Amino acid sequence: MIKVVGAGTGSPPPEDVADGAELVVGGRRHLDAVRLPEGARTVVLGALAPALDTVAEYVAEGRPVTVLASGDPGFFGIVRALAERFGSERLDVRPGVSSVAAAFARAGLPWDDAVVASAHGRDLRTAVHLCRAYPKVAVLTGPGAGPAELGAALRDDGRVFVVASALGSAGERVERVTPAEAAARDWGAAVSVVLCLDRARALGPVRAVAGPRPRSAGWALDEDAFAHRDSMITKFEVRALALARLGPRPGDLVWDVGAGSGSVAVECARLGAAVTAVEKTPDGVGRVRANAAAHGVGVRVVHGAAPGVLSGLGEDPDAVFVGGGGRELPAIVAECARRARRVVVVAVAALDRVPAAREALLGAGLECEGVLLQSSRLAPLPGDVTRLAATNPVFLLWGVRPHSRIEGVAP
């Protein structure tokens, strides 16, 4: 068996936790905190692969191994790597308190409704977009992905940070700061976790199921689920296919350009993506905000006309929906296609504008497909009979960046 013991954010491990081990693996501070058996070999954790190779030598000979880790080693920890290499049946895991649990405890908050993201050795953008989309997110930090970088990305999003450093040690610090304050400081290497909170919703409701609050059932909602002007809204049949091609998911950034009522933006947010809606009319901006609030989601709304306003949106999006544009449509599609990491979906009502929109997608190197959507809905007639009422046909084009990843959230 490989004994895996978590420590560092709660009570320290018993001094004799490594007794009987012939190999003890762990960080320097963990090795210094326990009594090492006489004659036992020690490996200070740095690069994981060489340590696992050494563990494999001892396991092959049936010699006992103890691995010391921080907090709960089964939560974004070494248990995954050990189970993959040696099989879970060989592991005797004794977890400590995870840094996330400890940070929420220090903040005096429940965390059964929190989203947890690791930015340690990973792209920070996924954590940033989760922080934009959800009211309570814990981010496990790493070099180049700490409070300063997170604060720089979220300084305009109205959040508050709880920064927990050196949890479980004599130098423990837990501080509440704004993202701007976090961005202006050098935090060093002791930060364990950052809690990103929407103060108004940080406490959250009583839950029966852990995880973020589930949205109401269904998608491609009826048009009457949104405030709109004179039926100027993406119809649910079109929205259904657009959402399928956009593939919004937690950790994504989606743009809704020419948002109108914001129905696509709201639906993408309901599916867990961070969303920026671009709308050129003041009354449209108000409608998008009202619809987002009515559905309990956060949508960043930018007032301005595309394509000019797009240059100020900051980070490139994963997916873009273009629902308006008029004569500017080819330029808008071209700019969106240039910047989209995965896909651009364009809804076009005017036949004359389809070729130019398609050429803009192809010109940016995207693989383009499309369909003409025509639907007829059941409608009542006098005499208790039913007719088919045709909706306006819409061309839906989508351009996919070759080799883009569409499975799962980025690691």
Number of helices: 12
- Count all strands and give the number: 19
N-to-C span: 30 Å
Q: Tell me the overall shape.
A: elongated
- Look at the helices and sheets and give the structural class: alpha/beta
Oligomer: single chain
Ranges where pLDDT stays below 50 over 5 or more residues in a row are: 406-411
Q: Helicity, in percent? A: 25-40%
Largest sheet: 7 strands, mixed
Compute the CA-based radius of gyration.
26 Å
**Side-by-side strand order of the widest sheet:** 13-12-11-14-15-19-16
Mean pLDDT comes to 91
State which percent range the strand residues make up. 15-25%
Brief rundown of the structure:
The protein has helices at residues 28-33, 48-60, 79-86, 99-107, 124-133, 147-154, 179-183, 236-246, 263-270, 282-294, 329-339, 354-363, and strands at residues 2-7, 23-26, 41-44, 65-70, 91-94, 115-118, 136-140, 160-165, 173-177, 191-197, 253-257, 274-279, 300-303, 319-322, 343-348, 367-373, 376-381, 385-390, 394-400. It is α/β, with parallel strands linked by helices. It has a seven-stranded mixed beta sheet, with helices on both faces. A five-stranded parallel beta sheet has the order 3-2-4-1-5. A five-stranded mixed beta sheet has the order 6-7-10-8-9, with helices on both faces.
Characterize the structure shown:
By secondary structure, the protein is an alpha/beta fold. The protein has 12 helices and 19 strands. It has helices at about 30-35, 50-60, 80-85, 100-105, 125-135, 145-155, 180-185, 235-245, 265-270, 280-295, 330-340, 355-365; strands spanning about 1-5, 25, 40-45, 65-70, 90-95, 115-120, 135-140, 160-165, 175, 190-195, 255, 275-280, 300-305, 320, 345-350, 365-375, 375-380, 385-390, 395-400. Strands 13-12-11-14-15-19-16 form a 7-stranded mixed β-sheet, with helices on both faces.
